[in-house]
Structures are given as C-alpha cells and as structure tokens.
Amino acid sequence: MTVMQAFLDNSYLYGGNAEFVEGLYESWLGNPESVGEEWRRYFERLQQSDSGQTRDIPHAPIRESFIQCTRDPAAANHLLVCSPFLELERKQVKVLQLINAYRFLGVRHANVDPIKRFERPRVPQLELAYYGLGEADLATLFDTGSLVGLDRASLAEILAMLQETYCGTFGAEYMYISDIAQKRWLQAQIEGCRARPNLPPAQKKHVLGRVTAAETLEKYLHTRFVGQKRFSLEGSESLIPLLDHLVELSGARGVQEVVLGMAHRGRLNVLVNIIGKMPRDLFNEFEGIHSHHDHITTGDVKYHQGFSSDVATSGGPVHVTLAFNPSHLEIINPVVEGSVRARQHRRGDLLGEQVIPVLIHGDAAFAGQGVVMETLNMSQTRGFGTGGTVHVVVNNQIGFTTSDARDTRSSLYCTDVAKMVEAPVFHVNGDDPEAVLLAAQIAFDFRMTFKKDVVIDMMCMRRLGHNEQDEPAVTQPLMYKKIAQHPGTRRIYAERLAAEGVVSAEEAQQMIVDHTETLDAGEQLRCKPVLSNFKRAFATDWKKFTNANWNQPAHTAVPVPDLQRLAEKLTTVPDNFKLHPRVEKILADRRLMGEGKLPLDWGMAENLAYAALLENGYGVRISGQDSGRGTFFHRHAVLHDQKREKWDAGEYVPLQHIADKQPPFLVIDSVLSEAAVLGFEYGYSTAEPEQLVIWEGQFGDFANGAQVVIDQFICAGETKWGRLCGLVMMLPHGYEGQGPEHSSARLERYLQLCAEYNMQVCVPSTPAQMFHMLRRQMLRPYRKPLIIMSPKSMLRRKESVSSLDDLANGVFQPLIPEQEKLNPKAVRRVIACSGKVYYDLLAARSARDIKDIAILRVEQIYPFPHEEFAAEMKRYAKAQEIMWVQEEPKNQGAWYTIEHYLRQHMKPGQTLSYSSRKSSAAPAVGYMAEHVEQQEALVDAALG
C-alpha cells in the first residue's frame, strides 16, 4: 500500500467526524450489514489490528443500562440480574489482556540468567490482581483468543501455559513487530511447543558431546599453555551446539554457504569445533610456529585468524567461513554482510536462500558499538540487504570489566538496538542447551521465511577474566563468587540427561576422556566431518592475482568506433522519458562528445570507462551518499523522469543497457553511513575480484568516519591475513575555499599507511587518466586497493578535458611530463605537483610568460613511478632546483612522503624545496578571502 493510499483510506478520521464515526462503529458492532461495504472493510481491519484479537462489543447499550439504573428501579433490578453476565464478559476481556501481557512482558520473569545475579523484578501486569482476577477465577473457563494450543481453558491452565511458554529458560520479545503475519508465525512457533524443544535421545547425546568438546578444549588449552591469551569461551560453551545446529539446519534447507563474523571471545573454539581447524595447527600457533605465505608479511595473532572448510551435513556439504577480524569488536559486521552479498550475487541468489550471514556479538559491544546500528540500518535496503542475518549475542553480562548495566548501556536489554528494524529477540539461558537449540531453530526458520534479521541473546557468564592474565574478582567480587560456585553448563546438562536416562554418568565422563585423547593426538574433535576434497561450485580463484606487479601493462585503450557506439547507448533514453532541462543539456553535450564535436569531460569519461568494462565482462558496483547523480552534478549514471516517481518506472540507468547480456551495473545512493558502508564494500571486494567495487565519499573527509576500516582492513588485510581486494575509494579532494571539512581528503593519511605495495594512491588530473585508471584496475591481474583523490572544481575546468583519441590510444600515466615545448637545457627549476594546483600553476606560468620552469604531474604518488621520474630528471639535468608544490598545508598532503622519493633522483648540486600552505592544525581555512590569498602566495612562491 502506498503512503497516499493509506492516507485516502483514513482521510475521514478527522476530529470533527468522531461522533459520526463512533455511531457507525456502534451500528457495525450490532449488525455488520447496517453500514456500507467500505466502512465494513475498515472496521474489520480495525478489529484485526487489535493485539488481543478480541471482538469488541457495542458500548451504547451498556452505557444506556447504567443510565436507566439511576432513573428506573425496574431497570436497576434487570441490571442486577444481568450483571453476572456482564462481569463474566469483563473478566473475559481481562484474561485476553493477561495473555497479551505475557507476550509483551513475560520475558521479564524468564529464567534466563544462569548465575541468577538479581531477583526477578515485580511486573504488576503479570499478576492476576492487576486485572481484578483472583483464585476464585482459576477454575473458570475462558476463550483464549489467538493463544496457540488452547481454544478454551480454565484460567489456571492458561496461566500455567503462559508461564511455561514465556517465563522459562526461553524468553521472547516480538510484540513490537508491526507485521501481523510475522507475529502470528512467531506465536505459532513459540506457543505451539510451549517454548520447550522435543529432542530425540540421540540428538541430546550429540548436544552433550558438543558442549563437552567446547569445555574440554578450553580446559586443555588452559593447562597446556598456561597464562597465554586465548579469550576463553568458558561459561559460554552452549555457543558451540548453537552454531553446530545452525550449520545442520542450513544444510537441510539447501543453504550452500554460511559466513560467520565474530570478535575474539571464543574464536579458537569455533575454529576447531565448528569449522574443523586441526588442533595441532592451533597448538603450533601457541608455540610460535606459523606457516608463512609470500603475501603475508606480518601475520596476526591466533584469535584474529579466519578459516573456512566444507562441512558435511545431513542435507549435503555446507561451506563455512569465519571471517578474519581485527580487535575492533563489531567492525566485522558490515564486512561479513558485504562478503555474503558478493557470494549471493555470484550464485544469482537474489533472495538470500543459498548464502547466509551469522554474526556473533558480545553483549556490551552489541549495545555500545555504533557500527551495529549502522549495519542493522542497511539490512533491508536495496543495495546492502542480504536476506536477513542471524545475530548471536554471547551475553556474559560483564562487557570488559564492568558488569553494571548503568555503565554499559542505557537500555533494558543489550539487544534493544535490534528493535529498530523490528527484529525478534530470543533471550535464552546458556545453561539449557536444548533451549539454545530451540532459539537457533526458530531464529533460522524466521530468517529463511521472512528474510529479516533475528537475534539470539544467549545469557551466560565469563568464567575467567577478559583474558587469561586478568583477575576479574578485583572489580567484580560478588559476581565471581557466584561464578566460582557454578558447576558449569556441561555438568548441569550431563546430570540432567543422566536423570532422564539418556546417558549414564560414566558415559558423560568418558566423553571428556575421549576428547582429551583426541586433543593429545592433535586431531579434530568434530562429529561432522570436514570434506577435504570437495570441489565447490562458484568458488573464486585468487591465485592469478598473487605476486603480480603494479606496473604490469594493461591494454586499457578502446577504439574510437567502440567509444562512439558506447556513447550513443549512454545518451539514449526511453521514449516519453522526460529529463530535467539541466540533465537534458548534459546528455546533449555528451552526444556531441561521443561524436568528437566536443572534448570529453570527467563525467563522460568515467561513464565510458564503466561501459567498456561491462563489455569486457566485468561488473561494476558503486556506492556513496550521492553516487547516482554525483555530488557535484557530474555523473548522472541514474536518470530521473520528471513526470514519474522513482518506484514507478521513473528511473533509467543507461549502463544497465549496454548489451543484451552483460554483467550487472549497480549504483547505490547509500544510507548516510561511512563505517558500515565502506566495511560492506571492502567485504564485497574481498569475495568478488571480477567486479569493480567503488566506495565514494560525498566529500573526501567523509572517510574520517570510517577510519577503522581503512586502518585495519584496507591497508593491512593482505599483510595480516593474505586477503587481497581491489576496492576503489573515490575521495573528492581540492582546495576551493569550502572550509576545513570539505577541502581535504587527508591524502597524508593514506600515504602514511602505504608500504609493501599494499595499495595505490592516485591523483588524476584529466578525464582520460580517470578512464584508463579505472579500466587498469580490472584489466591487470592485480588486485590492490586504489585510493583516488578525485576532482571537484576540476570537473568543469575547461583546461581539464580529454579527447576520444586520448581514450583510444592512451594509457594511464603515473607521471605526466611537461606538455609545453620548453628547451630542457634552459629549465632552471622542475616543479612536481599533483591535482588541481597544476592548472593554477599552468595559468600563472602562461600569464607571466615563464619559459625556464617545467611542471611535472605525479598522478600516482604510491607506488611512486621512479623510472618515469628518473627519465624526466635526466631530461632536465641542467636544472638547479627541484620543487614540490601542493595546496595542502606543509604538515599535510604528500610533502613528507614524496620528499624522500624526490631526493633519490637528485643530482649533486641540485636543491630541493617546497611550496605549500603553512603548517596547520586544520586541513584548510574557513574564510574565502584568506583561502585566495594563500593560494596566490603558494603559486607565487612556486614560480618566483
């Protein structure tokens, strides 16, 4: 239903019409046929939206009866006769309200805390007296409304069912969901089994084996590698049967891949007991023995490592991947989502049926880290949705060293942030592994049915400190007294199964012995085998991208006839598609550019690069907060019909119509987020090397909000974990007097992070350079992140244009030589620069008729083009001075990085100098007059 339709459906609900509408409602309650069809439909919908699902009764007769009581003794006597029936009706309504209260608030009384730190709060709405009910009513029969499993029962039976369902070791929050179908589905799942799973004995024994494996591994590591950090899972062992069950459910449902993301707590246990990492390999890492690869130069600690394997399930093999993760607790969330989206795309899995994400969180981090909210916010968007995520919160109730909720969050539950996307939340006691499996089952089925996020809040404890060298009792003495007295999940469950006759105490103990012997042998503890020779469909081969050289040539040129054909497609719109006049003029100009009658601007060259890549078989994905149109009104990859809304065929994307069969082109006007979106695109690019993946900052400084992704993933992912990626970051950069925040993309930060050929930093100065650079990024067998300081005012600078011939016969030039025909022997100064300042220098040099200063453009600052620069220095061997010129302040920009490169190529007697703005704490000034003065001064210094 559209917003307008909803308005029209309710447009008669004005305050002035209230008496009229109430009268109609009363008539409908007495006789539905007494009102018109439109009103009948409206009142029926009104009844359906009632959360108690009870049919209202006419109010007027009741009011009239009470009025008559005060006037007529006979009427009063009649009311006394009828009052038992009215009282029963009143109690019926109250019983339905009680049922609803348990659905809303029963979780407050749920037995979900294994260490029972606090008494359950008093919730009056869960008490009979709150509704005027008491023991005398317990035997009375009532209708149960929508309560699943009971149509009519005594109040005692209803109360017992509600307490069993909503106040046991499984507690649910879902009544805030606005979709009635989702709520009814959840009620059927939870109330249908009274929140108690019915596992066969064999499965119970399997669950005990998984819990035993988890506990045994932790205790084994604790005694064999004393004092070493491992971020133990002890106290949270039920995570292992939970994940084991999710993998099994996935296989049964036809899921092909499960991608896990988690921080360090319990990671080693998941690696061994879920994904099948060999314990001997883990032990080697504890002992400092690592298997090195050529492209892993630094490596990472063992509890940040990722792993993947093909796991056998009853439904077939499932590829399970645990993403590599830095210490930044929740930043892995969007990275996993991006990786999942890429895998889904590769399989054509548009609904998210074949690849699913599972994210494991800590309680304090889930509530405290903003990227959690950002990732949730993306979950149902077109450009970033993955068909829903299963979130598992390992809630050990302590965060880092704090266990007081006043210090960790401002909400009642750590999971309350998930309610923003109406994700159901299941709170479950980690000491009841069967309840944990029920939560996993319902969560998985909900995700697969409704393609939405769902949260499992597994309440547990942390037996040891934050790490194994920490003493938590110093700050949490009472909590850790309780934990010290706790027997452990494995023992509790083993004793329960022994009482049920499922296993004997001796069998349970033998499981520990067997697992210990397996660990002694360095073998796997898994019950599900890992398939070592399984060949996966849709697997990606990255081998061709390893050990490649950045300057390996790539044929990026495109013949003129092909460019003209692509230009025609880019400028053709459907019939009756009304463009905005400004956009119509831009497309008209682009048609002339395609015909060679106008020089190419930046927007046209960029679109031609994408079109040519699509014809070469490479998909393109661009995301940013204004990427469809382009922040600077330059891209116009998405065209908008001025007569129709977007969702009503009002958008047209020419790049999606380059060929009958072509790879996808997707440009996304993203959510207003940097950290999560950039993390998503990084994850996507690490899983899909055959797509050009671009994240564009609306302004270059917007990347500041995503610095953790840049520092911990983009610049170091290869050297730490061997993860290649070809992600492109477009960061608008240039000093146009727009103040401190919208001038600089912080070029210096990226250059400071450059080493070991980990990424590329480029500052293109012509449309042709952008064209060849984007094509080079895909056509070379080379996948490294590319940071582009992209233009702003230069987009429309008349000197900054290119020709079709530049695209048809050129290549990307890491360094562009002097373009004027100067006498090399007469050149006394060689200026090297990047970006927009080149055109300011060029204009000033021309105006002053200077013939003895050459200007070189360094288009790729890292890796620095040493060969090309050396050739230019040889050409200008008579020059006495080399100067670097930049718009940025001296302590920013490229100077402190490039100084060392320039010195390598200087000859004896030559001097090195610079011209820039003076060192500054801010990236730029905020006053236009001062900006102009500074710009003129640095140009004068360069040419003086």
Automatic annotation (TrEMBL):
Record keywords: Glycolysis, Oxidoreductase, Thiamine pyrophosphate
Enzyme Commission identifier(s): 1.2.4.2
Substrates-to-products reaction catalysed: N(6)-[(R)-lipoyl]-L-lysyl-[protein] + 2-oxoglutarate + H(+) = N(6)-[(R)-S(8)-succinyldihydrolipoyl]-L-lysyl-[protein] + CO2
Cofactor: thiamine diphosphate
SUPFAM superfamilies, sorted: Thiamin diphosphate-binding fold (THDP-binding)
One Pfam family linked to the record: E1_dh
GO annotation, cellular component aspect: cytosol; oxoglutarate dehydrogenase complex
Molecular function, one GO term: thiamine pyrophosphate binding
GO biological process: glycolytic process; tricarboxylic acid cycle
Enzyme class: oxidoreductase
Matches recorded under InterPro entries: 2-oxogl_dehyd_N (IPR032106), 2oxoglutarate_DH_E1 (IPR011603), DH_E1 (IPR001017), KGD_C_sf (IPR042179), ODO-1/KGD_C (IPR031717), THDP-binding (IPR029061), Transketolase-like_Pyr-bd (IPR005475)
Domain Transketolase-like pyrimidine-binding: 600-797
Protein family membership: Belongs to the alpha-ketoglutarate dehydrogenase family.
NCBIfam families given in the database record: 2oxo_dh_E1, PRK09404.1, PRK12270.1
Assembly and binders: Homodimer. Part of the 2-oxoglutarate dehydrogenase (OGDH) complex composed of E1 (2-oxoglutarate dehydrogenase), E2 (dihydrolipoamide succinyltransferase) and E3 (dihydrolipoamide dehydrogenase); the complex contains multiple copies of the three enzymatic components (E1, E2 and E3).
Described function: E1 component of the 2-oxoglutarate dehydrogenase (OGDH) complex which catalyzes the decarboxylation of 2-oxoglutarate, the first step in the conversion of 2-oxoglutarate to succinyl-CoA and CO(2).
Name listed for the protein in its UniProt record: 2-oxoglutarate dehydrogenase E1 component
